[in-house]
Specification:
The chain is an alpha/beta fold. The protein has one domain (2-116): Rossmann fold (3-Layer(aba) Sandwich). It contains four helices and four strands. The protein has a four-stranded parallel sheet with strand order 2-1-3-4, with helices on both faces. Strand 1 (2-8), helix 1 (14-30) and strand 2 form a beta-alpha-beta unit. The longest helix is centred in the first third of the chain and has 17 residues, at 14-30.
């Protein structure tokens, strides 16, 4: 079973967690993917490992780590891949895939132009 784990940085602001939860609920309603969860790299919970555990406990056999990061950097290039490698050792039977940061998506320019209109 496929799952999506939306990974955000984390914030001390409770508003951020509510926004992420709303986004996940919206994506889940519009997708045929049965498991949608969210996790945070730091500050907030659940952690990425906890989010993976939640997905696996719901029956996930594949976890798509959807990066809610605009650009590459230490977190995207080093920290998150390290956490996913650790999860792969914990769950060798689970397929993991990390997406590119959203700033690398080919339609990001169009989105920004729409926002500034």
């Amino acid at each position: 079973m496929k799952s999506v784990l939306l990974v955000s940085h984390g914030s001390h602001s409770p508003k951020t967690k509510k926004e992420v939860a709303r986004l996940i609920n919206s994506l889940h309603r519009r997708s045929k993917i049965p498991i949608f969860e969210y996790a945070f790299l730091e500050i907030e919970s659940p952690s990425i490992q906890q989010g993976i555990d939640i997905c696996v406990n719901q029956g996930a056999r594949e976890v798509v780590v959807l990066l809610n990061f605009l650009n590459s950097g230490k977190h995207v290039d080093e920290d998150i891949p390290r956490i996913i490698k650790e999860a792969q050792r914990k769950y060798p039977e689970i397929k993991f895939r990390i997406t590119q940061p959203i700033g690398q998506h080919k339609q990001i320019g169009e989105l920004f132009l729409e926002i500034i209109k």
